[in-house]
Amino acid sequence: MKRESQLPARYLPFGDSALVVEFGDTIRPDVNRKVISLSEAIQEAEIQDVEELVPTYRSLLVRYDSQKTSYEKLASHIRNLEKTLKASNVKTKGRKISIPVVYGGEYGPDLVHVARPHGLTEEQVIQLHSEREYRVYMIGFVAGFPYLGEVADRIATPRLETPRLKVPAGSVGIAEKQTGIYPCEAPGGWQIIGRTPLRLFDPQKQPPALLNPGDMVTFQPITETRYKDALRNS
Fold first, then answer.
1. Could you name the CATH architecture of 4-86?
2. Are residues 155 and 114 in contact, defined by beta-carbon separation less than 8 angstroms?
3. 57-91: pLDDT as tens digits
4. DSSP-derived pairing of the beta strands 216-221 and 96-103
5. Among 43, 76, 153, 188, which one has the highest count of C-beta atoms within 10 angstroms of its own C-beta?
6. Residue 63 contacts residue 50 (beta carbons within 8 Å)
7. What are the boundaries of each domain within the chain?
8. Peptide bond into 150 cis (omega under 30)
9. Considering the entire predicted model, what is its pTM?
10. HEC-encoded secondary structure of the chain
C-alpha cells in the first residue's frame, strides 16, 4: 500500500480563478514538503498569469488571472512541474530560526492550565515546549501567523472554550498539537504560554513575514529582563 505522500496529487478547481493541488488528507512533514516544494517550483518557473500562491498543511492554492489563462492550461503546466519534483528528492529552502520566549506569568497566563491537566509542573511544560524543533507548516489566520508542529503529546492541549477578545502581539500558544505565535494583537483561543519580543510581521520589510512555510523553529527560554531589553532595542 502506498504512503499518502506517494499517492497522485488531486487537482481541483476553486471558484473561477483558482485551483487547489491536494497532496493528502493528514498533517505530515513529507506531505507538507511536497506542498512547499511545488510552490517554490512555480515561483521559480515564473508562470505567467499566476497571481498568488497559498501553501497550507496538505494543499496548495493557486490563484490566477482567468482572463488570460484557463484552469485546464494552468493545471497542465503545474502537473508537468510536479512530475519533475517526483523525479528528484523533494527539498525546500527552509531556514533554522530560534525564537526567544519569556514563559509564564503575565506573558503566559495559560501555562498553568497546560501543566495541571497533564500532571506536569510549569517548568516541565517549558522544557517540553522548548526542547524540540518545529516545522512551519503554513502561514494563516492573520498576516504572519505561523502554524508550527507538532508539540509533544504530553503538552497537547485543546483551545480555550471561550476565546479571548485580545491576545497581545508576540504571544506563543498551544492548540491541540500545534503551537503558534500571534504576530499582532488579535482575538484568539489558543492556550497562551509565553511571549516573544520578536516582531513576526513588518509590512515595511521585504518579505514582511519573519517566518515562511518550510522553516524550522526552536524556542529559547529567556528571562523577563532579557525580554524587556529586547523590546527596547527593537
1. 2-Layer Sandwich (3.30)
2. yes
3. 999 999 999 999 999 999 999 999 998 876 445 55
4. parallel
5. 188
6. yes
7. 4-86, 96-233
8. yes
9. 0.86
10. CCCHHHCCCEEEECCCCEEEEECCCCCCHHHHHHHHHHHHHHHHHCCCCEEEEEECCCEEEEEECCCCCCHHHHHHHHHHHHHHHHCCCCCCCCCEEEEEEEECHHHCCCHHHHHHHHCCCHHHHHHHHHCCCEEEEEECCCCCCEEEECCCHHHCECCCCCCEEEECCCEEEEEECEEEECCCCEEECCEEEEECCCCCECCCCCCCECCCCCCEEEEEECCHHHHHHHHHHC
Helix 29-45 to helix 71-86 angle (10° resolution) is 120
**Residue indicated by cell numbers 497522485:** 8
What topology does CATH give the domain 96-233?
Cyclophilin (2.40.100)
- What pLDDT, on a 0 to 100 scale, did the predictor assign at position 98? 97
